[in-house]
Amino acid sequence: MIEVTTPRGPFKVWTKRVGNNPRIKLLLLHGGPGFPHEYFEAFDDYLPNEGIEYLYYDQLGSYYSDQPEMTDEMLALPRFVDEVEQVRRALRLDTDSFYLLGQSWGGLLAIEYALKHQDHLKALIISNMMASIPQYNDYAKNVLMPAMDPKVLAEAKQLEAAGKYEDPRYLELLIPNHYEKHVIRMPMNQWPDPLKRSFDHMNPKVYIPMQGPSELGASGKLANWDRTADLKNITVPTLIIGARFDTMDPKHMEWMSKQIPKGQYLYCPNGSHLAMYDDQRTYMRGLVEFMKGVDSAMTNERSSSSHV
User: Fold this and answer.
1) Is residue 182 one of the residues assigned to a domain?
2) Which of the residues 101, 160, 174, 242 has an alpha carbon 20 to 30 A from that of 116?
């Protein structure tokens, strides 16, 4: 448990280290916001075999960490960024080893962190996240929704208009027609246990104010977030991971990789928003190759400069 300072006083956040590698330490920023780290347990079958150290971390308000009342000041994006920086310092991560991976909302947070603190990063991984919520909403409206059965979409929209997000019928419609197509491409009764636990442990008091209650787009505090113009300022090696069936536009994510000076793109042709599960081999292989490639390039760079 790491103590972090916030506008409402000190609280504790949960972290867990797996493995030991002085040159590759991967801090994981989970999605949501308000989901826990648990779905990242997909990495347990891959990263230890590659000798990569990784660090689980539940952001404040998530299941394993303290869950204070999340007032507006607590839900402010700069506060989340500052929390990550406090965690980095407590874990003694820096440019010789610090890789940061953010998935979904965690990817948004990772972009924000890099724009403020990239001097501490060795490399950055933005997984399944666009650089603009307005463009994500456009993609949902113009691509994902028209692909749904019109009757299903109409009924889901009707429930949303009536504010009936808690109505069991809402999830009954969205699970087969949205989640199993764009979030994770497998029937819900086959979802991996870490993912089920993540959904069970989600904190709606963080998720709904930030993301909004609809699963077909974002309408909360993040609705106007857009960093497309700032990607060029991220100078550390960066991997963007996108997937064919993602809720996020894979073409936009490829475009992002070209805006970042040292950007690369990993495309998961069989994957969705949780490509770490439904296109696992492509995802894990690409992630490991990127991290080891950055480490190798930097080691060679240091070695040649020391010879000079």
Assistant:
1) no
2) 242
Q: How confident is the model at residue 262 (pLDDT cuts 50, 70, 90)?
A: very high
- Of the candidates 178, 182, 252, 273, the residue annotated as catalytic is 273
Pull the structure tokens for residue 263: 């950007």
What does pLDDT average to over the chain?
95
Give the model confidence (pLDDT) of 178-213 as tens digits. 999 999 999 999 999 999 999 999 999 999 999 999
Residue 253 lies in a domain: yes
Task: Tell whether 31 is covered by a domain.
Answer: yes
pLDDT, average across residues 290-300: 93
Catalytic residue among 246, 249, 278, 295: 246
Q: Is 182 a catalytic residue?
A: no
| pLDDT of 33 higher than 80 | yes
Catalytic residue status for 62? no
User: Measured between alpha carbons, how far is 34 from 16 in angstroms, rounded to an integer?
Assistant: 18
Q: Into how many domains does the chain fold?
A: 1
Is 117 catalytic? The answer is: no
- Full residue range of the structural domain in which residue 121 is found: 2-133+194-307
Residue 73: CATH number of its domain: 3.40.50.1820
Q: Is residue 98 domain-resident?
A: yes
Which residue among the candidates 65, 104, 257, 272 is catalytic per the annotation? Answer: 104
